[in-house]
Write a structure and sequence with these properties.
This protein is 12% helix and 42% strand. It is mainly β and 153 residues long.
């Protein structure tokens, strides 16, 4: 039996890992203490089944985007200060981020995540013996994700 997918073998040296990506603030400063980040879009549909057919369809209803990241605690960041200030000010902090993947050939995929606000559980202190101290953040992206470039192989 011969190999059907020869392209994957030929291109495996071009596969990227986490060292090819980063999370930046609105001013383009690398957030160097961020260990992981993930942006996900959730699409919600409604079920629709016309009379006289057993087939069910889905119709687009809504979408939302979340951005989560893990921050290694080196010092108190602006994020935690903004979050704690929210308690007394009563106003939600709002941030803008840039998620970047840099290709080996100079191409770059950059997504802008505007109007991000805290949502869900956020670690204030998460400590265990022998482990790096980290904070898990969960944000909701209230703005439209804006692409600013595409990766090329």
């Amino acid at each position: 039996m011969s190999i059907m997918n020869t392209k994957a073998i030929a291109d495996s040296r071009k596969v990227m890992t986490g060292k090819n990506g980063g999370l930046y603030n609105a001013k383009g400063k690398l957030l160097a203490t961020i260990e992981t980040f993930q942006a996900q879009m959730n699409v919600t549909n409604q079920k629709y089944r016309p009379l006289g057919t057993p087939k069910e369809f889905e119709i687009f209803d809504s979408f939302g985007t979340t951005l989560t990241f893990t921050e290694c605690v080196v010092e108190d960041s602006g994020f935690i200060s903004d979050l704690l200030a929210m308690q007394s000010a009563g106003e939600m902090p709002e941030w803008k981020f840039q998620g970047v993947i840099k290709g080996r050939n100079g191409s770059e995929e950059r997504f802008i995540y505007p109007n991000c606000i805290p949502s869900g559980n956020i670690d204030l202190q998460n400590i265990s013996v022998g482990s790096i101290i980290k904070r898990q953040w969960s944000l909701y992206v209230n703005g439209d994700v804006q692409p600013q470039g595409k990766l090329k192989a």
